[in-house]
Amino acid sequence: MIRPARNHPGYWAFLLHRLTGLTLVLFLPAHFLVLGLALDAAALDGAIAWTARPLVKFGEWGIVVLLAAHMTGGVRLLMLELLPWSERQKTRIAVSLGLAAMFGVAFALGLV
Amino acid sequence: MSPDAGIEVRIWRGGAQGRYETFRAPRRENQTVLDIVTWIQREADPTLAYRFACRVGVCGSCAMTVNGKPRWTCRTHVSKVASGGRLTIAPLRNLTVIKDLACEMTPFFEKWRRARGRFEAAISRDDPLVPVSPESPERRAADAAIECINCAVCHAACDVVAWRGDYLGPAALNRAWAAWNDVRDGDRTAVLAAAGAEAGCGNCHSHQSCAEHCPVGINPTRSIAGLKRAGLAALLRGAL
């Protein structure tokens, strides 16, 4: 449960950024491991065939959503720290979430 | 809630180790949380320790944790915060509890000194006054930061202070931002050096809990972001 003092958009945005970041850190070694299989064509083909499974496809979509959320959140933080201050920080949090959701929908529909 | 129904109040007793003690206090019209604490100390248990002075939101000494949020108790109406007719009152987070609701404030003010929040004059009293236009960007930035009442609510709300106790925190850094924007100061770069040192403004994670809870509407996250930008610019200029 979020403590009452943390129950505001700035903290939710931080939590999302931290959790997506940690999950992506866990994903990266697996990603590099599969790339490393390229030295052995048969092994790589096997891994790629494995990724065609529905559940793995769904996981791939999840990774894309996490990546999109982490990227838009990161851009928001860079804007907060580097651009002249704007009082629209909560609007920016909403926009970054909206953009991440759009990425997710676009990927699910096969648009990107 | 009718005014005479009374209210159940749980209050922290003891130091860092302690427990909540439950009191029952009468309800009054326009009653503040500080009114409740004062009633309990005067009518129920005179050994209850807490701090207050002005009772009107100027001195910044009565901040406590009320139902989980840091607040100035003298300007917090019971009717606005009593969830389910109950109040839980604890000392501020991120400070050492002396007794009950009173915290040791020395480390908090030491951070103001470390952040170089004081004015260093460049000229003497014999020199003519330096004109500062109220419209200048620096004066406007200082204006937005200068009304702090030193209540430590932001310091209690900040998770980065909870993670590393030596982090300067929102209040001291907000003061440093006001000092940096004082164009009369003789060594403004020293402010950036102090505020940007280890455990300084670079540690801020921009949760904005400080701005969310500041009772006088200051936004320390804005001040800290300003210090980060000014520090980066000074670094690129080779001035830092």
Care to give the gist of this entry?
Chain A is mainly α.
Annotate the secondary structure layout.
The complex is a heterodimer of chains A (112) and B (240).
Chain A: H1 9-36, H2 41-50, H3 54-82, H4 89-108
Helix pairs in contact in A: 1-3, 3-4
Chain B: E1 7-14, E2 18-25, H1 33-44, E3 63-66, E4 69-72, H2 78-81, E5 86-90, E6 97-99, E7 102-103, H3 106-114, H4 137-145, H5 153-157, H6 159-163, H7 169-180, H8 188-195, H9 209-213, H10 220-237
- Order of strands across the biggest sheet of chain B? 2-1-5-3-4
Structural class of chain A: mainly alpha
Radius of gyration of chain A: 17 Å
Give me the Rg of chain B, rounded. 20 Å
Descriptive keywords:
heterodimer, A: mainly alpha, 4 helices, elongated, B: 240 residues, alpha+beta, Ubiquitin-like (UB roll), Fumarate Reductase Iron-sulfur Protein, Chain B, domain 2, five-stranded mixed beta sheet, 10 helices, 36% helix
Describe the overall structure.
The complex is a heterodimer of chains A (112) and B (240). Chain A has 112 residues and is mainly α. Chain A has a domain at 10-27 and 53-108. Chain A contains four helices and no strands. In chain A, helix 1 (9-36) crosses helix 3 and helix 3 runs antiparallel to helix 4 (89-108). Chain B has ten helices and seven strands. Chain B starts with 6 loop residues before the first strand and ends with a helix. Chain B has a five-stranded mixed β-sheet. Chain B has a two-stranded antiparallel ribbon with strand order 6-7. In chain B, a hairpin with a 2-residue loop joins strand 6 and strand 7 (102-103). Helix content of chain B is 36%, strand content 14%. The mean pLDDT of chain B is 95. The A-B interface holds A 3-6, 8, 10-11, 14, 77, 80-82, 85, 89 and B 65, 67-70, 93, 156-157, 159, 205-209, 211-213, 221-222, 225-226, 228-229, 232.
